[in-house]
Amino acid sequence: MQSNTLNFVFGLTIGLVFAYVGISYMTGPPTPWPTQMRYVATEDQETKLRSPLRSFLTHEDLEKIRAIVQPIEFMDAHVHNDDDKEARRLEKEIRVLCWVMTSPENLESKAKHVRSTWARRCNKLLFISSVTNKTFPAIGIDVPEGRDHLTAKTMKAFKYIYEHHMDDADWFMKADDDTYVILENLRYFLSSQNTNEPIYFGHHFKTIVKQGYFSGGAGYVLSKESMRRFGAHGSNETVCRQDGGAEDAEFGKCMENLGVKVGNSTDKLGRSRFHCFDPDTHLMGGYPDWYYQYDAHGAKKGRESISDYAISFHYVPVDKMYAMEFYIYHLRPYGIESGKQELNQGRSS
Ligand SMILES: *[C@@H]1O[C@H](CO)[C@@H](O)[C@H](O)[C@H]1NC(C)=O
Ligand SMILES: *[C@@H]1O[C@H](CO)[C@@H](O)[C@H](O)[C@H]1NC(C)=O
Ligand SMILES: *[C@@H]1O[C@H](CO)[C@@H](O)[C@H](O)[C@H]1NC(C)=O
């Protein structure tokens, strides 16, 4: 008897939610609804769901995060009443173009989730692949797929951006489709930097290139002057290798040859902002051997080594991207207001 009542209440709740979803869907939400709404249900609830409207929900997106019903959450509608004036001011002042290196087979499995999470906060967002997809949309540049051609992909992507999007941003960030970027912290850091200087920032590796270079997976961000220099001389093969080698190291050589300096992005307490591994690895250590030879800042680990205003992490799988969104933009310890730390800006060295 009691379990029948529970079932009824459960069924009614699900029914109402579906009706709501159905109506929202039919009346046309402002953006495609899967990116705007999320549904969270336990596996148990999921198996209980039997509804003709279920077909609306069997979206790859939602399957990935095992998302189905309750509670409906509008990802942009913060219930926190956070004071985000400063972030919104910086969003206008420090315009960041993000380009995400992806591939045809990763569009649906990875790139789509990048777009649904951190990358929607970029002022301008481009997905660059080897094949054009007008519906996604992804920009196809004329390179074969595969690890051997990542250098060409990067060179041609920056060339494309130089030719088509120079006026759209003040800074130009390259990321992979498994990079996670906290745009607010990126803009905060860049607000003390000069985009008319030939400089770029990222996770600093000290090998191979004289001044070192930045890890490709942690993402790196170029000033406008760096873009201008790249646009002027980046296609010259004696200055920049056009394909082959390791993408990030080759790009680092190219930058060095163009007189673009590697910038210092560690904060006043010596903590890192760009990260070539996922948060857990930087917190716990357990680095691969090569990292001790490569890392320019002594392969530190632990909470004290990571800036509270960290900018990027790498090797973040799809479900963790949604988890990061939750921890960074949603979860709050009640009764504690985030106090602004003394400005720990890193200055270019
Ligand atoms: C292009 O993108 C759309 C939307 O993400 C996707 O459904 C479609 O499968 C893609 N087409 C190809 C050929 O990859
Ligand atoms: C390419 O760069 C080299 C070295 O700076 C220079 O000598 C050469 O003239 C450049 N070639 C072109 C076509 O600009
Ligand atoms: C990098 O910048 C920080 C913050 O300004 C500073 O404390 C640190 O000494 C700098 N590191 C180098 C190598 O210049």
Automatic annotation (TrEMBL):
GO molecular function, one term: glycoprotein-N-acetylgalactosamine 3-beta-galactosyltransferase activity
Pathway: Protein modification; protein glycosylation
Domain of life where this protein originates: Eukaryota
A Gene Ontology term for the protein's cellular component: membrane
Cofactor: Mn(2+)
Annotated coiled-coil segments of the chain: none
One Pfam family here: Fringe
Membrane topology designation: Single-pass type II membrane protein
Bilayer-spanning residue ranges: 6-28
EC code: 2.4.1.122
Keyword Glycoprotein: yes
Family: Belongs to the glycosyltransferase 31 family. Beta3-Gal-T subfamily.
Name this polypeptide is given: Glycoprotein-N-acetylgalactosamine 3-beta-galactosyltransferase 1
